[in-house]
Specification:
Elements (H helix, E strand, L loop, with lengths): L1 E7 L6 H8 L2 H4 L2 E7 L7 H5 L5 E4 L3 H8 L4 E8 L8 E6 H5 L13 E4 L6 H10 L9 E4 L2 H10 L4 E5 L2 H7 L3 E6 L10 E6 H6 L1 H19 L2 E2 L2 E2 L4 H12 L3 H6 L13 H13 L9 H4 L3 H10 L4
Parallel strand pairs: 1-2, 6-7, 6-8
Antiparallel strand pairs: 3-10, 4-10, 5-8, 5-9, 11-12
């Protein structure tokens, strides 16, 4: 069997990787997948650029494009998470006391509030800017506070932030704790934003193409299995119990929270939304976070998902 090293953060973002592993899809294509745990996707950029890691999941954020501009080469090869209509797992939540007091009624009321993002130059920049534009606000009309998603829940609880667009399952956790009110998902103002992607090292993509193709066959098969479990915005359809069990085991999250949270959307073919990438790149440039357009024509490589779909046939 060929060994493939995969970077993971042991969160719900790793769902397709975990399905392919636990359901034996990788073994069926003669791959021995070894997971390496990282604290964040950003920590995977250097090792995948140095061919010390074959596959990783990452966010198409300013840091990724700056790494590519600095010669840290990698390939964007598949979808990992989007928010198509009905699957807004990137959620605007506001501190509950601000809602119950009437301080927050509409998006315009965010003006002057402390609004959290996971980091400067993350995909949340574009999400937040579009949200504020809906009410005629500018990005700097709110006070930006940069905190990781788990820390945002704590900050809502102690009152040090007022609102945020936070990913699941943290949005559902905050609501269940009674400290925040869910307003709506980002699918209502930025549908199908490309929030996460699968990355291949250049060495894996070029020198081990056969293994890279087989990995993608297993991955796209997992995407189809996952999509079969989606129903009305949740992991509630066919295969749902199986997927909830896998996620609960790996993430240590409460199964009920996993059932209640809004599920991420993932394209069952694995193809990415390149228009979203380009839109977000324009936003990063406008904020001075990247200086030039990254060479998407060479960075984005859909040959592997094309191969996987040709092997698996049409999705029924």
């Amino acid at each position: 069997m060929d060994t493939v090293t995969v970077g993971a953060v042991n969160s719900v973002a790793d769902t397709p990787f975990l399905i392919a592993d636990r359901k034996g899809f990788f073994k069926e294509v003669n791959l021995d997948v070894k997971f390496q745990t990282f604290n964040s996707g950003a920590g995977m950029i250097a090792p995948i650029g140095a061919d010390q890691l074959d596959v990783a999941g990452g966010a198409p954020a300013a840091g990724l494009y700056n790494a590519i501009a600095q010669g840290i080469n990698m390939k964007i090869v598949a979808d990992r998470a989007t928010d198509p209509p009905g699957y807004g797992f990137n959620v605007l939540i506001v501190r509950k006391d601000l809602v119950t007091s009437g301080r927050f009624k509409t998006i315009a009321d965010l003006k002057g509030m402390k609004f959290a993002e996971p980091g400067k130059g993350s995909t949340s920049l574009a999400t937040t800017e579009r949200l504020l534009q809906k009410a005629g606000l500018k990005y700097d009309d709110v006070e930006h506070v940069f905190l990781g998603f788990p820390e945002q829940v704590v900050a809502l609880q102690n009152g040090s932030i007022d609102a945020t667009c936070v990913l699941e399952p943290w949005a559902t956790q905050a609501v269940k704790l009674g400290i925040a009110t869910r307003i709506y998902g980002a699918d209502s103002w930025y549908p199908s934003q490309q929030l996460a992607v699968v990355l291949y090292s250049v060495g894996f993509a070029t020198k081990r193409q056969d293994a890279a193709n087989r990995f993608m066959v297993a991955y796209v098969r997992a995407l189809r299995y996952y999509n079969d479990a989606l129903q009305s915005g949740h992991i509630a359809g066919k295969n749902a119990a199986d997927i909830i069990a896998i996620l609960a085991e790996v993430t240590k999250l409460d199964p009920q929270t996993l059932r209640e949270m809004t599920a991420a959307g993932v394209n069952p073919t694995g193809h990415i939304n390149e228009r979203s990438l380009r839109d977000d790149i324009a936003t990063f440039k406008a904020h001075g976070l990247i200086t030039a357009d990254p060479p998407l024509a060479t960075v984005v490589d859909m040959r592997f998902v094309d191969h996987a779909n040709s092997v698996l046939g049409p999705r029924h």
